[in-house]
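Good morning,

Both structures are done.
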Amino acid sequence: MTFTFILASHNVLPGIDDCLAAIRHCARPGDSLVVVDDGSTDGTGEYLDRLARIGALGLPCRIVLLGAHSCSGPALAFRLGIEQARQIPDSGAIVLVDGGGQLDPAGFAAARAHFERYEPDILYANYAVLDPVIAEVLRPQDGAAWGRIHAAPHAGTEAARTMALALEPAPWRAIYRSGFLGGMASGVSAGTGRQEDAVFHWETCLAARSFAFLDRRICFHRAGRAAAGAEASGDGFAAFTRISALLASGRAFAWEHPFAADAVVWLLTGLGRELERLEFTRCRVHAEQACAALGAIPGAIWALACDRLGAGHPIVPVGNMIRSASPADVAAHWELLALRRETQAALGTLCDLGERIAGQSATALRLLQTLSEIERFSALSEMLPRRKGKT
């Protein structure tokens, strides 16, 4: 089975050679590459175009250069790449690669063998997050979901769909059957990266007829966008609106869909992470969005979602408060929490600064004491010869 690798790039010139080397390491004869550069300004697009023209990419390539940045993360690039992949004959599978990270050859080889054995519409694997700020490799925040997958390795289609929807929306963690993606409407990227990742995840999960899972790392993804997944920008509410539209397709009402409660669970889980770093200036807008989104959820669906989260989940009482309070009251509560968090952070900074100053003061005191001893020694040294001369 041949694979098509779709590489989405934007201003990743320093690491693009490593990314390409990993793709070449994972590719087999007959595989192909589609490159879509999302308006890079650091020369990434021109560099990739030059490599493609001289045949230096290592496998047959189609390249698309966008004239301006779409501001939608790799989502638009992936969708355009899928359109290009439709024109590649005999392509059996599609792999979406974010140019900011790179494939893990050993894990990818295992996932490829698993995919070729079962030939599902989607195979979900795992990935690691590279955090350049703390210089660590982290696992994504869906360990509990993998626990359920391990407990039900041969789940039927609808149970497998439930488990797939519980995974973090990350298109680079999956292998897709070309015919499956090719048969879907391409759609238009209308939001930012995190929103588009979530909508694409739900769109493909709801449409797939077969799934496979493999808890092996197939790639490294650089932190900063979906990997962080908790920027309080309101993307979660915008994505929830679009996911609700997907659920309503062919129905009079979105809440009639059997996975409506799963969508609410997804929204609440993301909301919990957002609130941990919600900025004071965003509280009022965020409160209005939260009250509108959660207040529209029918009681039966809300109860089912809370039951799936568990009574002890910290976001459940927060959600109940949002549904019963006014946006102004919710905003005031969040502003108080944000001020407390920012105050604690400022106090921590002051303590660190105080310790540093204290350390510098102690060092300065030791230096003064040393200088004083040197001066005393010098004075004694000058006096000794004089006394000797007098005797």
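Second structure follows.
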Amino acid sequence: MTRAMFDDLAEFYAWFAEQHDREAYRTEQIPVEDAAAWRAETGTGNIVHDSGKFFSIQGLHVETDHRDTPAWRQPIIVQDEIGILGLLVKVVDRTVYCLMQAKMEPGNINVVQLSPTVQATRSNYTRVHGGATVPYLDHFVAPRSGRTVFDALQSEQGSWFYQKRNRNIIIEIDGEVPLRDSFCWLSVDLVIELLKVPNLVNMDSRTVLSGLPYALPGPISLRSRFAGPAVHRFQHILSWLCEAKTRYRLYQELIPLAEVPHWHWSDGRLVHGEGRFFSVMAVDVTAASREVTAWSQPMLAPIDRGLVGFLGRSIDGVFHVLAHARTEAGTRDIVEIGPSVACNPANYARGSHSRRPVFLDVLLGDGDVLVDVVHSEEGGRFYHAENRYLVVDVGEDFDLDVPDDYCWLTIEQLSRFVRFGNLVNVYARCLISCMVGLSEPAPRDRSKSFGAR
């Protein structure tokens, strides 16, 4: 196919199948000690790259009064540099189109997913690896042409990254750009439909798209059921967040990986003694379409699929979601606005002493389901990491009185916080993208159970 601007699902799927089949990809699990150019540092045991760039895996000591476990140590990814997640958009005949890429990542459960126009760490786009340049990068670094629609530093998964941030940026252009292999223009309406498909729109796309709903007038908006007067003023919510940041304590100290207890090496992986949480493993990769066509790297592999979800209900005719001021091991500023529930249920089903997350059973209960889709997490760092994303309307009988760490927001208010950066966590941002274009709730499918693929 030569056409690469799509409004139609069938045409897109035909193009996407071509991209997937046009070259061979290979990802092989290997022992961490066999990952070329990576090594365990003498003395600390930290896993580092020979260049000193990219990222490392170190130990983290955490103390907080905002989790059931007051102190723990764990492995964590340390990546000090700020990468770029950039999306080019343009308006053609009153329709907004996004320039997206069918991109291979070694951790993707289905190999190729839709990424934003640019998805690159600083080490990648400064070509530490000695490979090719990143396509379209010049549109996202100064000086650049085009209109900045959205630009914010955003956090990533605080359970697995230490204070990691990426620059999320959307640029609107008026003219044409040369269309590279594996790239296409997708209408926003089509992207909204593709967000309902499991493991298709990658995490980097979802976080950038969360900045779009209120940035462009007209074509992109939330349906009227999800906009309107809020139960809390914006200033009240900001004060609620500031209160949480001053109420709680989060102490973080990077330590040698060798000093993390309860973790041990087994068959080339670093694993938890109880088989919980995640493991540190490695892959060897071949991919002709990438800036570097072959490489090895360590990755984090979660033990099971996670669960991320908002409880929602109408308040005076306007839909609100229940947000949680949440602390993670690697959170930069004590708490961020997160979903009502974010956990890996398998961690609570194996004799864990941790208390079952608040509202988990409500989320999996009898409400009306608005969103229910499985999406992959960052395939460049996490191996086959998936979360089930849920938004459930629990009905107007659900109590408005909630614990102090929770607050009712409209989706419009939540989107507004996204534009300031570093306030809304990555899971809540992904849910915002999944909620764009919602209409009326669909009845819950009773045949679905957690973990069903």
